[in-house]
Structure formats: C-alpha cells, structure tokens
C-alpha cells in the first residue's frame, strides 16, 4: 500500500552528487597513478639503459640520440613543439568529436533499423577491412594542405570503431530485459532512455576508447602526406634533416597528446558509468 | 482482484516447413484466481514458452489465452514477472531498480517510497536499498528482483525458474518468503520450475509437463496444509506426492 505520510525519499540534491562524483573520479585517477610505481621504476630504468647503452657503444647522434640529448634539444625548440602540438591536437580532437557525433547516431540507426542492417551494416563491415589510411593521399590531393583533409582522415579512422561498437551495443539488450520492458507497457522512447541507452554505454565506450587511440595516428599520417605544420610534419622534416633527436621530441609530444585524449575518454567513462565492471575499484 | 487464466488448445511451433519445431501443445488448462500453479518439467519441455505466452510476450501458433475472459493479444501490463536471470540493471541501486518498474510505466516512484521500504523489509533487504546489484549475493539479487516484480501490486505473478541458479539453502529461504507473500495477498501465481519438491511445497496445483512437444500430462491438486513448513515437508503425504510425480517422469524416460 502507498503510505502518503512516509518521509520523502532522502535523495540528495543533484549538484553535490555530481561534485562528489568528480572528486571520486579524480581520486581514482591519482590512486591509479600511485599504484603504478613498479611500472614507473621500469620506465626510468629503460631510459637509463638507453642513455648509457648509446654512450657505451658509441652510437652516433644522427642514428640514435640519447634521451638527455632529446630533452635538451627538444627544450630548445619548445615553442614550436607546443605550437605544433596544438595543431595536431586540434585536428585529432575535431576529427574525433566529429566521428563520435556521426558514428553514434549511425550506429544507433543501424541497430534499430532492419533495413539499414541489411544494407549499410554489411557495407560498413567490408569498409572496416579497408585500411582507411590509404585514402589519406587522395584527401590531400582533393582538399589541399589545410585543416579539413586532416580532420576528415581522423574522422575516417575513428568512425568505424565508434559506429560498429554502437551497433553492437544497441543491438544486444538481453531477452529478459527486453521482455521486462515490454511487460511494463513502456514505449520505445521511454525504454530507450531508461534501459537501452545506459545498457549500451559500456560497449559504446569500448569504441570511444579505441577511436581515441586512432585519432592521433590518423592526424600524424595525414600530416606526413602533406602539410606545413603539426607534429607529423615536424617529425618528417626532422628525420629528413638527420635530426632524430628532434623527431623523438616530436614523438614525445605526440605520445602526450594521445595519452591526454585517451585519459579524457577514460575519465568520461568513469563519470558516466561508474557502475560498470571495468570501472570498479577493488 | 486476482484473475482466472484460461488456456484453450494452445500450441506453439517455432519456424516453418521441415525445420519447424513443435515446442508446445496443444494445452488446455484453467488457472483459478488466487491459486498457485506450478508448471513442472525438465528443461526444454516448453514450460517457459507457455509462461511467456501467458504474459503476452510470445504469440501463440494456435489457440488462445484468456484473463477473466479477455483474450491475451499484447504484453499484459497487469502482471509481475520474475525471470531466472534477474532484470536488475547494474547502473541503478536496489531501490532504483524497484523504481524502474514504476518509471517504465510512467509512474512517479516518490509516492511508492513507503511501499518499496516495506517490500525490502519483507525480504530482509532493508539495509540494502542504496546498494548496487553487484554488491549483493545471488540470493539477495533475486530477493531484490522479487520486489521489483511486485512493486506495482500486480494480481498475477509469473515466475520463470527464479530460484534456478541459487544454492539449496538460499532457495529454501526464498521459497518460505514466496509462500508467505502468496498466503497474505493471494495473487494468481504461475511458477515454472524443474524441482519436484519445490513445486509440491509451494503449489495448490502442480501441472506435470512432459517434453517434446510439451504437454500437460497430469494436473495434480496438492492437498497439504499451509504453510508448508519443515514439518509438512517431512510428512508422509508430502513424500507421497513427490514420489508419485517422480513416477510420472520415470515412465516418460525423463528420470
């Protein structure tokens, strides 16, 4: 029976709950980093080995520079490196966001439309087999050296992981949950918001993360093909000038960029689906 | 008011042509309002299929089902269903999962807060309202799913082997709760199980379902006193029922 004079649900107001969530997410990230000390030790050891092996065997600097050379020479060129990081970062992030903005609704449409499942889906699956990066020179030829062809190439390498995982995510609600929703008489829209969407998020994030890894790869290769700025451009010029030290500095900033992008997606996952098994703290 | 469910020459065939599988039927059965009817049979006998058809979640190939004379043509929203794999969603707390049943019906869960609390207390989960399903044991999850299936006060309850994946002690304990609930409110219950003991203990009527294609071989009224506690289960009459049903399955080559 419904008791009308029962105390109201002690649900906390929304803002503090979200703030708490953010604090927990950041705290989780810090803990993850703190737990990484064996890896960090190995990491430092690896660079020490590199440094002293190069010196010990007398490897010339134009073949393989030492990490300390990379740091000092890279530091001397830091304004340009930062500039180019911003360029490549813009291409990657724009392309990534566009791929998610297009891939998610298309994946959703395919998951729910039997017609699209028979037409677009097999088309996408076969396109998935095509190395998208092979289109890069074509897009440069069609659209020139600017931002647009790079963004398009990033979209190309990010789109498929997003779309294919979304199709899988939205198409695989368990029989029990489907039946449960039907037995309540809920319409498709309410079922979507209350059950299908949250149930699909973990699998969607598999695609988002995979795409985040692809984004900087796409941007770099696009820059190799034809550009006058960006980290890919920087690395290819440095290599041509027999300056592997600067190439390594470029690679370092590319790595930072990729880590930052992946970190943002992981943090978003942590915030959006803290209940998911991959997100639980043990 | 609990509904009387009539099943008339119902059968189900999956697929068509030479690949068609005759899963079930024809079956005729009347489930009296307020009775606890078990569909008892081995796996693959079509008892779950029958339950889904009663819920209106699966169309019949032939025949029809009537709730108080009204033919079932679409999913019925006035029933509560509990499945073997529970329908708790991992992103909601226990309380939130129970409220999901209401929200999917377009109801505001707030006025139900008291009822949700009472339900949780009745299955000994009062301290777990804010916990998430993964923080609970299998048995506690099924208890929570039980509350989810009941929160909208359905007059008819369908259970599809809800205790199938639980350990023996937990099963025993939840059976007791189930029985208490049924005795208190007397909803019409259709209970799918493959445990003979469970069927005899809980049911007013046991339908013995034999496999391929599933048919109701025998309908047995269980004339034992309520509540069917340990003493009743130890009685010769109880053992007799279990023994007789075992005999039916043995004759069918199931046991």
Automatic annotation (TrEMBL), chain A:
The chain crosses the membrane at residues 29-50, 93-113, 120-145, 151-173, 246-268. Keywords: Cell membrane, Membrane, Transmembrane, Transmembrane helix, Transport. Its main location: membrane. This is NitT/TauT family transport system permease protein. It is a multi-pass membrane protein. Residues 85-263 form the ABC transmembrane type-1 domain. PANTHER family: ABC TRANSPORTER PERMEASE PROTEIN HI_0355-RELATED, ALKANE SULFONATE ABC TRANSPORTER-RELATED, MEMBRANE SUBUNIT. It is found in: Cell membrane. It holds the Pfam family BPD_transp_1. InterPro entries: MetI-like, MetI-like_sf. The keyword Phosphoprotein does not apply. It comes from the Bacteria. Belongs to the binding-protein-dependent transport system permease family.
From TrEMBL, chain B:
GO terms for molecular function: ATP binding. This is NitT/TauT family transport system ATP-binding protein. It comes from Ancylobacter amanitiformis. The keyword Iron does not apply. The keyword Membrane does not apply. Belongs to the ABC transporter superfamily. Residues 5-236 form the ABC transporter domain. Keywords: ATP-binding, Nucleotide-binding, Transport. It comes from the Bacteria. PANTHER family: ALIPHATIC SULFONATES IMPORT ATP-BINDING PROTEIN SSUB (PTHR42788:SF13), TAURINE IMPORT ATP-BINDING PROTEIN-RELATED (PTHR42788).
């Amino acid at each position: 029976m419904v008791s009308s004079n029962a105390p109201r649900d002690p649900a906390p107001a929304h803002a503090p709950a979200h703030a708490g969530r953010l604090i927990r997410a950041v705290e989780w990230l810090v803990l993850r980093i703190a737990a990484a000390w064996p890896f960090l030790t190995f990491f430092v050891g690896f660079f020490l080995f590199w440094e002293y092996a190069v010196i010990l065997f007398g490897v010339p600097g134009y073949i393989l520079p030492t990490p300390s050379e990379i740091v000092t020479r890279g530091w001397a060129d830091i304004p340009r490196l930062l500039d180019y990081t911003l360029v490549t970062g813009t291409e990657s992030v724009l392309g990534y966001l566009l791929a998610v903005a297009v891939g998610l609704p298309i994946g959703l449409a395919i998951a729910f439309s039997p017609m699209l499942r028979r037409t677009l889906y097999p088309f996408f699956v076969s396109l998935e087999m095509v190395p998208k990066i092979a289109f890069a020179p074509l897009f440069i030829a069609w659209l020139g050296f600017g931002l647009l062809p790079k963004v398009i190439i990033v979209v190309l390498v990010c789109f498929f992981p997003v779309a294919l995982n979304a199709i899988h995510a939205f198409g695989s609600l368990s029989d029990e949950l489907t039946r449960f929703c039907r037995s309540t008489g809920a319409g498709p829209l309410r079922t979507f918001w209350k059950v299908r969407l949250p149930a699909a998020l973990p699998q969607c994030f598999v695609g988002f993360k995979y795409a985040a890894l692809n984004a900087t790869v796409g941007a770099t290769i696009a820059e190799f093909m034809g550009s006058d700025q960006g980290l890919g451009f920087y690395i290819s010029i440095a290599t041509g000038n027999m300056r592997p030290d600067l190439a390594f500095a470029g690679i370092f900033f590319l790595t930072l960029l990729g880590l930052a992008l992946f970190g943002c997606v992981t943090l978003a996952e942590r915030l959006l689906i803290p209940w998911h098994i991959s997100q639980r703290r043990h | 008011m609990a509904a009387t469910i009539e099943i008339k020459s119902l059968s189900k065939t999956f697929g068509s042509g030479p690949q068609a599988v005759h899963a079930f039927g024809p079956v005729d059965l009347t489930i009296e309002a307020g009775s606890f009817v078990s569909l008892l049979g081995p796996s693959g006998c079509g008892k779950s299929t029958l339950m889904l058809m009663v819920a209106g979640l699966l169309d019949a190939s032939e025949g029809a089902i009537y709730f108080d004379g009204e033919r079932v043509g679409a999913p019925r929203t006035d029933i509560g269903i509990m499945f073997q794999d529970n329908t708790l969603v991992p992103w909601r707390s226990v309380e939130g999962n129970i409220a999901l049943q209401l929200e999917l019906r377009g109801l505001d869960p707030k006025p139900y807060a008291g009822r949700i609390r009472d339900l949780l207390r009745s299955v000994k989960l009062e301290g777990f309202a804010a916990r998430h399903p993964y923080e609970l044991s299998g048995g506690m999850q099924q208890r929570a799913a039980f509350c989810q299936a009941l929160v909208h006060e359905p007059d008819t309850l369908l259970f599809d082997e809800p205790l199938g994946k639980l350990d023996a002690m937990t099963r025993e304990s939840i059976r007791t709760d189930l029985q208490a609930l049924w005795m208190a409110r007397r909803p019409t219950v259709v209970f799918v199980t493959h445990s003979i003991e469970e069927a005899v203990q809980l049911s007013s009527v046991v339908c013995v379902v034999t496999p391929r294609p599933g048919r109701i071989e025998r309908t047995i009224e269980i004339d034992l006193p309520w509540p069917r506690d340990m003493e009743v289960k130890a009685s010769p009459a109880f053992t007799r029922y279990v023994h007789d049903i075992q005999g039916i399955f043995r004759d069918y080559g199931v046991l």
